[in-house]
């Protein structure tokens, strides 16, 4: 979908559409209309963010999902990804559709290419953990495979000394120099098998690397509760608190304070 179409003027009265619509009008046609209007905004238009917030809030109020309509989140996240607004793109793509997972994985990989080689696992986790936190294992697994495949097909992949470990049920790629990437892959495998003991063993084995990664503890505790039944104390709004914490800053890598320049990101992609 071309997000640059018609971005020469602010859509007229776009901010009033949702305020004037009752819950009865909540249907796919109207949602598509709102998305079409969003795509008419120029990137620099100051009222665009307010329109996005109102659009998502309206869908959360009248729709079935309290975090807002996934198609809306996908449209918003895709626009931000195209503009290389990484943090905003992450927040919306994580709440989007199955297609969003591919965009988020590729966005994180592009960001990773501007950082140190050893930080691959941190960027992969930024594409995987949000989907696990929202209960979308399929999207989490899809994002991981896309990120891993891009890494394996990169010109420098031979230097990673990838090891293929095959069994009757799974094929696992082990990266000796990327422990956090290994952790994320094995975490997905443990979830797939529903093995709580494997999950606990992973946490112990990779404890030092997890600590170095930054704000992973609450996210992993929530994942343990959702997928393995390991109870944790309840919080006021654990999901959104953790999402905000996880996306609150750049990865704890050598270039964590910066996002890649737009032109460079396009070259890398």
UniProtKB/TrEMBL annotation:
<dbReference type="GO" id="GO:0045048">
    <property type="term" value="P:protein insertion into ER membrane"/>
</dbReference>
<feature type="region of interest" description="Disordered">
    <location>
        <begin position="247"/>
        <end position="269"/>
    </location>
</feature>
<dbReference type="InterPro" id="IPR011990">
    <property type="entry name" value="TPR-like_helical_dom_sf"/>
</dbReference>
<dbReference type="Pfam" id="PF04190">
    <property type="entry name" value="GET4"/>
</dbReference>
<dbReference type="GO" id="GO:0072380">
    <property type="term" value="C:TRC complex"/>
</dbReference>
<dbReference type="InterPro" id="IPR007317">
    <property type="entry name" value="GET4"/>
</dbReference>
<protein>
    <submittedName>
        <fullName>Uncharacterized protein</fullName>
    </submittedName>
</protein>
<comment type="similarity">
    <text>Belongs to the GET4 family.</text>
</comment>
